[in-house]
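FAQ

Q: What does a record look like?
A: Structure on top, sequence underneath. For example:
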């Protein structure tokens, strides 16, 4: 084969290869085009679905602010029936004129920064009414990166703004209440090293501090008279999540003691771990003192400060029951002031009252801690000696008489104070009723009194 023929054949082969490559490229380009169109269609469908189902209003506008497309929610939010009523109009028509300057400023900001978020505007409806809205916008660019349009989402926040306003008002009312009530309101962290993180003026004053900073600097445990009480309080809060009207013995900054009533609840995080305690605290020291005083007045003879008749007999019955259960002895002394009526008649009832108080004083300072004494009435007294044989009780009674005798020798008064007494014993071999014991002691007292009168 000649060289000329070889060259022709080679060129023909190259031509076929080139045609095959062109056909392959055309096929590949067609496939890529189809894939691109499919992808664009999918994106378009997704966008349309997203816009249609979005709970927020979606508005697409060109760089001049002219509306290109709107979602059904946009129509609903602004009171329009058809997108034709909005497409081609300025998006600024959906914003109240009072906010136009801010909207233009934020439009420029979107061009520079690509987006703005959660901007609050007064928005308008078709009928001219307005509502509070929140707008976010993003800049859309073409394939070459050039700005092409704005995509904005808006939502009606009228109810949220009302709720926020109501919350602010409630918080202000709560703040005003807590700032002015005379009960302490607090929040503190839990544990042995818990600290106050909120405290109203009442609690600061209650504990003798001058400012929140001062009370925030201390550990809550520093306010407890006994550290173990704080530990018990924390354990109860951890177990139950609250305390109600818990009485605590606390102390002020200067160390003085107060009694407080505390109600608190444990506030927990999402993992059920205690974040802090919210509570109220009231200083009940004066109330407790008043209660104790009322209790004392209810059980005590006001003149002599001994137990009154009712309380004395109640104690007597209690001690007799105890002696019966324990099979132990108990003694009583029935004591009477001699010639008290004569002192009243000759020197006045005030002087007679002084004699009653004097004898009561001698009784109180002579009897044992475990003993009890009461004024039965008039010039008569009852002393109860639990777990005491009559011989020992007589010895105590004689010491009282001796103190009266020493007083008489000092000649302080123009009269002589005299006592008569009688004893009775309850025991395993001498079991008697309360009435029997009182009768025996009373009879013994009168025997002694009559013996003195015969002298």
């Amino acid at each position: 084969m000649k060289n000329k023929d070889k060259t022709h054949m080679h060129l023909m082969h190259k031509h076929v290869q080139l045609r095959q490559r062109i056909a392959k490229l055309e096929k590949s380009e067609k496939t890529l085009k189809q894939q691109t169109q499919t992808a664009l269609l999918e994106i378009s469908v997704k966008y349309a679905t997203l816009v249609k189902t979005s709970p927020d209003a979606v508005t697409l506008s060109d760089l001049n602010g002219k509306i290109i497309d709107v979602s059904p929610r946009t129509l609903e939010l602004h009171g329009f029936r058809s997108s034709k009523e909005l497409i081609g109009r300025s998006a600024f028509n959906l914003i109240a004129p009072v906010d136009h300057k801010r909207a233009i400023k934020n439009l420029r900001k979107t061009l520079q920064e690509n987006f703005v978020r959660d901007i609050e505007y007064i928005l308008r409806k078709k009928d001219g009414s307005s509502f509070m809205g929140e707008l976010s916008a993003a800049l859309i660019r073409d394939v070459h990166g050039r700005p092409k349009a704005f995509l904005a989402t808006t939502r009606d926040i009228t109810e949220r703004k009302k709720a926020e306003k109501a919350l602010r008002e409630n918080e202000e009312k709560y703040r005003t209440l807590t700032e002015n009530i005379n009960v302490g309101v607090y929040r503190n962290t839990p544990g042995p090293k818990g600290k106050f993180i909120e405290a109203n003026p009442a609690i600061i004053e209650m504990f003798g501090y001058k400012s929140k900073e001062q009370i925030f600097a201390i550990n809550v445990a520093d306010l407890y008279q006994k550290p173990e009480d704080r530990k018990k309080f924390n354990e109860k809060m951890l177990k139950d999540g609250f305390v109600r009207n818990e009485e605590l013995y606390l102390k002020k900054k200067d160390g003085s003691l107060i009694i407080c009533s505390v109600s608190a609840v444990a506030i927990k995080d999402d993992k059920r771990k205690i974040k802090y305690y919210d509570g109220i605290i009231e200083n009940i020291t004066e109330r407790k003192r008043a209660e104790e005083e009322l209790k004392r007045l209810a059980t005590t003879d006001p003149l002599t400060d001994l137990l009154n008749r009712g309380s004395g007999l109640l104690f007597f019955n209690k001690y007799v029951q105890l002696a019966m259960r324990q099979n132990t002895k108990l003694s009583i002394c029935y004591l009477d002031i001699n010639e008290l009526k004569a002192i009243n008649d000759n020197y006045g009832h005030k002087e007679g009252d002084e004699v009653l108080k004097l004898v009561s004083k001698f009784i109180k300072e002579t009897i044992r801690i475990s003993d009890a004494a009461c004024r039965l009435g008039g010039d008569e007294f009852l002393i109860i000696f639990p777990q005491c044989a009559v011989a020992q009780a007589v010895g105590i009674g004689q010491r009282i008489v001796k103190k009266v005798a020493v007083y008489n020798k000092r000649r302080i008064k123009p009269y002589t104070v005299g006592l008569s007494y009688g004893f009775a014993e309850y025991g395993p071999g001498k079991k008697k009723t309360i009435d029997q014991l009182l009768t025996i002691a009373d009879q013994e007292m009168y025997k002694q009194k009559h013996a003195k009168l015969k002298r």
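Q: Is there anything notable about this one?
A: The mean pLDDT is 85.
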